[in-house]
Design a protein that fits this description.
425 residues, alpha/beta, Udp-n-acetylmuramoylalanyl-d-glutamate--2,6- Diaminopimelate Ligase, Chain: A, domain 1, UDP-N-acetylmuramoyl-L-alanine:D-glutamate ligase, Protein-Tyrosine Phosphatase, Chain A, 3 domains, 6-stranded mixed β-sheet, 17 helices, 19 strands, 35% helix, cytoplasm, cell shape
């Protein structure tokens, strides 16, 4: 079946599903493969559950009613998404970066949706499957689509751009994330910069943090750029005021008080503000949008529990985000301060070194107690109390003698699931 023919059917049944546990009536089921499953085996089940059609790449299903046989289901999904993108008038904003992608995306959505019909990546579905699904969520009346792009290897952002064909691009930052796949920080910079390379090659608009020397270098003399700054000329000035614990900032004569913890969220707010300005949204409306956004899903959430103020930042972690989270936490007023830190994943050969750096940093900061959880942290040379895993921590929890007040930081990679600590605390 051709992509154009499939797109005609998609227009009649505009819901895509890749998981039979989430089948909805009259959706189109794409039988994707994974390391531990083959979606082809669930095609008949999807149709019984209410799917209008199923797209498969296993010949044994050829000739079945309501089943489309293609050479490769994933490539077909990606091709359909690109075809659909080209048949919709929506402007595409793509963003990537080492830290803050999802928060920034949600802030941008909060601002732009005040004036425009806007869609955005759901959660962090930002890979070779998630990006096509976001593009396929664009409706005929959609004016702007915000597409988050994640990557852990070179050429991934380049590939995602070839599908999404963004009109605008923004990189949050370059940090120590996915070092195993990128082969080091230089690889991270090169990989994330593939977005700016696409934008400049295709004469799009590049948004940037003009105080980031790497972004300035990558964009060079490119004229179609629009950025924010605290101290440079020729860019939109936004002033950082404080972060105790949430970020507040000054734009022109307007103060904006966010619900986002930590100075590291300042630039995330700035990106949403500068895009709002570019798209002619009044500053008072931008202020309302930023101030109404409250983080969820274990991302820099503030939880007041039994006399303690808990900062839950357990959605993910890498050396860059861990460093700024700890530095910000140490500057907060009040005591005692306790930090529960979980292992950082996907660091490859750098894992031991990076975990030791974080342990060393923690010992130098104004934090009263630090607890380290995970295989990597448990092998660091430090005087902190260490636990090989969550079960080890749970079994020894009652012996820790924790105070009933103060501030607590919980941060670790997703695989550590440190939100489980809340039940104990």
């Amino acid at each position: 079946m051709s992509i154009s023919a499939l797109h005609q059917i998609f227009q009649q049944f505009p819901t895509i599903c890749t998981d039979t546990r989430k089948i909805t009536d009259n959706c189109i089921f794409f039988a994707l493969k994974g390391d531990n499953f083959n979606g082809n085996d669930y095609a008949e089940s999807a149709l019984r559950e209410g799917a209008a059609y199923a797209v498969v790449d296993d010949k044994k299903y050829a000739g079945f009613d309501k089943v489309f046989l293609v050479d490769d289901v994933l490539e077909t999904l990606q091709g359909l998404a690109k075809y659909h993108r080209n048949h919709r008038a929506a402007k595409i904003i793509a963003l990537t970066g080492s830290n803050g992608k999802t928060t920034t995306k949600e802030l941008i959505f909060s601002v732009l949706s005040q004036k425009y019909k806007t869609v955005a990546t759901v959660g962090n579905l930002n890979n070779h499957i998630g990006v096509p699904l976001t593009l396929l969520s664009i409706k005929e009346d959609t004016e702007i689509a915000i597409v988050e792009m994640g990557a852990n290897h070179l050429k991934e952002i380049e590939f995602l751009c070839s599908i999404a064909l963004p009109d605008f691009g923004y990189i949050t930052n370059f940090g120590k994330a996915h070092l195993e796949g990128f082969g080091g920080v230089e690889g991270v910079i090169k990989g994330k910069s593939e977005l700016y390379e696409f934008i400049t090659t295709h004469n799009g608009i590049a948004f940037l943090n003009a105080d980031d020397p790497i972004q300035l270098e990558k964009l060079g003399t490119y004229i179609h750029k629009y950025g924010f700054t605290q101290n440079k000329k020729d860019y939109y000035k936004i002033e950082f005021l404080k972060a105790d614990p949430c970020v507040s900032l000054q734009v022109e004569d307007t103060c904006i008080q966010s619900h986002l913890i930590g100075s590291y969220n300042f630039t995330n707010c700035c990106a949403a503000i500068v895009m709002g300005k570019y798209f002619n949204i009044p500053l008072d409306v931008i202020k309302q949008a930023i101030e109404s956004y409250v983080p969820q899903n274990n991302r820099s959430q503030i939880i007041d529990k039994d006399g303690r103020q808990i900062i839950l930042d357990a959605y993910n972690a890498n050396p860059s985000s861990m460093k700024v989270a700890l530095e910000n936490f140490s500057k907060l007023e009040g005591s005692p301060k306790m930090a529960f830190l979980g292992d950082m994943f996907e660091l490859g050969e750098s894992a031991a070194t990076e975990h030791q750096i974080i342990a060393d940093l923690s010992s130098q900061l104004n934090i009263d107690k630090v607890f380290l959880l995970g295989e990597n942290f448990s092998m660091t040379d430090s005087s902190f109390t260490k636990f090989k895993n969550y079960d080890d921590f749970k079994s020894r929890f009652m012996d820790l003698g924790l105070t009933k007040n103060g501030k607590i930081l919980i941060k670790g990679s997703r695989g550590m699931a440190l939100e489980r600590l809340l039940d104990l605390l």
